[in-house]
Amino acid sequence: MLQRLLAFWLWVCAASCLLAGPATAQTAPSTLPGLLVFRLKPGAATLPAARRLSGPAWQKALRQVGATNVAQKFPQAQAPLARKKQVVDLRLVYQAQYPAHLPFAKARALLLQTGLVEYVEPLYQREPLYQPNDPSADSTRVKSVQYYLKNVRAYRAWDISKGDTNIVIGVLDTGTRFTHQDLKDQEKRNYRDPVDGIDNDEDGYVDNFRGWDMADNDNDPTADAAYLGTARGHGITVTGVAAARTDNGKGVAGAGFNCKYLPIKIYPSTPAGVFAGYEAIVYAADHGCQVINLSWGGVGGKSQYEQDIINYAVLNHDVVIVAAAGNTNAELDFYPASYEHVLSVAALEPNNQKGKTNTYSYHVDISAPGQQMLTTGSAHDSAYSTVGGSSLASPLVAGAVALVRAQYPDYSAEQVMARVRQTADSLYTITGNAAYRHKLGTGRLNMHRALAEPTLYAVQLTNVRYEPVPSFQPGDTTLIVAELQNLLAPVSNVRISLTTASPYVRIVRGSVPLGDMLTLSEAANALEPFTVLVAEDAPLATTAILRFHFEADNGYSSDQFVPVLLNPGFITLTAGNLHVSVTSQGNIGYDAINPAVGEGVSYRNGPSLLSIGGLLVATSPERVSDRLLNEAKSVDKDFMSVSPLHFVGAARGADQEIMSRFRDTLSDSTVGVSVRQRGFAWADERRRNYVVVEYTLTNTTADTLRPLYVGLYMDWDLPLANNRNAAGWDAGRQLGYVYDQLAPTLHAGVQLLHGGPVSTYAINNSAPEGAPVRLADGFSNAEKYLMLSSGTAVNTINEQPAGADVSHVVGAELPALAPGDSTRVAFAILGAGSLDSLQAAADVARLEYDKTVTPVRSTAAVVQWQVYPNPAAGSLVVEIPASFAARQLTLLDALGRPVRTWAWNGQPRQRLALPAAAGLYMLRLEGKGGVLTRKVLIRP
């Protein structure tokens, strides 16, 4: 399950979903418009609620966002217990409204810049996974009976345990039918708050005697057709599988037998209502549910807020959460099922083959029957229907989990989930299932074994650490530490090995003994980490699956799978004071407005200074290439990666050098260029306030590009004051810069270093109608061309007295570029505390660019420079040719910070004593022959 912890956050824009249909691989969850959630940093927990949002910096940020109705999302949430690990404090989560015209990315950036919040996210709308059976399926039913109870050995399980009325399954769905003959009196009642108009139990919910309607905020969770169409009965059918009354001589039997259910309605019946699935998880956890069933979700839209809610229920309240894995015949990440600490359930056909329309993945924990499921219906009080989908497989497992909780009351939620997984029946020898090996979980649910098996073993990953950082760039060496916990019976002589089928990952060290593990004991391979190498030719954003295999002397063996993202599409240059993320497709800071790809632009480890930035190339108003916002307020995706971004092993006169190649899409609306992109950063005092980005453009068309404009578009948002910024222009230095007009203590800018005649254009992002460039109605190709081609006449924005939200372009005009010819354009991106410091950095950048970046090193010197052994432990030998005339060696950590410096001894060979800390370092050699660098891996 830990593979989910390390998946990169998948950003998706708002998109509509069909309420009742299965998701597709391209579907993205819709968001609730104008709403966001954020979590304050932990230190705020000790402050009274009234003081948490009262500071001047925070109030200023809220005003800039236009945020209203800011309030704690879960004011009744219980404080975490200090003795527990990984608990979540939901008191730090807040919700706010923001204006519909403001892009979410901008609102997010402004709030993050306060330094007070952990994250800012939209609220996703997750849909019920209802999938009515085709009418022809009637002929294939097994005499219209509940075949699935026999498949999962429910009858034998009930000989051992029939559950307990004190075990409550929270059914979070479209609502229930209290009067149905098989659901009547099955709901868990809250006798502390009878229906009398008073909140007798003082839990914040008036008369929540038998559940709650979270979507409409009332005490009637009855299913309603008003806003649900054909999905109105979804919650009724789901409830029947888990908790229909058993042994009453009517209809069907629920898997949970005597266990009760708590109906919590999460879909609205009124225009004012909203989807409330995650709020309902908190309610269920706070109100005594030991099991929660979630038969809903969506593809993508991974959210830390949603994971926090899951963690609150499982880790803080010891609840088992069971979720449907999805109804798309594809390998997908599906949420909430794919979150950590969730028991993800895939659906099976009656013959135990994977459901023909159901999702599969390494995130699935277990499978259960889900097609042709006879259960309670919604038409009337004695209605039954046969339906299908993972929505029905999930409550079947939830009912089984309830029985296990009753049988093993001392088990934690994680132990219960482990027992259910470990007792599943193998599926992969069944015809048709071999292709889905490891992607249908541990097998098919076996309720009898889950209750009866006397001795079970379950070693589980609890965390995976990557050292020095989880970048997985091409050519990188990464150390991997696996942290484990034994959840069930003691195991002896545990061994763990690491393998992968990816051709782009080579395992250098892949097997480690861990010794004996008692129940609930923990272990890790920190002293002997796995070592992996990423291939130089790893394609952009390629997922590799790491397989962790566990074995023990008592015959126990199991596997867990962790996906890692190779070549994630960006590298952050961190050698100096200015940290700049560069993407493989020409963006600066982030990949357009996607905060998952990039870490922004920051100065002295502060918040990001840049909202959106990137390369802009144009030859006419109709032919423009970029990856920036467009007139439709979506993102132009004109540039495509050809060679992924990677560190250059022997940096060219810099402490860090990166390189990639990309091209545009050669459409009628693009320019027709391929681009070699380089980036350079330095750690020394003179050069640490800037980075250099260099673009070599080649004309890939059959025509001369005349003229050709190349520039960087930068939408700066200086911290706490994005709407009071000003844009200035230093013509002598060809430097465009931005600063806070009322408190000019931070400056950032772009300088043209090499190309043609300079151009610049500054705009107020909130310009009124009629302005030549107005971002409020989108950013058209014509506007982009205007900013590139207008010379330097519109070079400042200085709105008095308050300032403005500003953007600018700094670029170069190239008279012509013939077919097949190439040209080079270079910029410095700068940051400093004052304008004088910024200008001084610009002077150094111009002076040093041609001297230290442009010259080519001696190939012979690079070839003859030897560093061994590598990886090394304790010491390292360096050999160089005498002609290089070395002066000193410097060891830099992964952030570009000097760790140790050695003067060269004048000999061709020198042994260096290395620091004890393991990790990936950069060794820099300086001499008359130039500056050479090489990566060095230090082992413990």
From TrEMBL:
The active site is at 173 (charge relay system), 234 (charge relay system), 391 (charge relay system). Pfam families: Peptidase_S8 (PF00082). Residues 1-25 form the signal peptide. InterPro entries: Peptidase_S8/S53_dom, Peptidase_S8/S53_dom_sf, Peptidase_S8_subtilisin-like, Peptidase_S8_subtilisin-rel, Secre_tail. It comes from the Bacteria. Gene3D superfamilies: Peptidase S8/S53 domain. Keywords: Hydrolase, Protease, Serine protease, Signal. Residues 165-442 form the Peptidase S8/S53 domain. Belongs to the peptidase S8 family. This is S8 family serine peptidase. It comes from Hymenobacter guriensis.
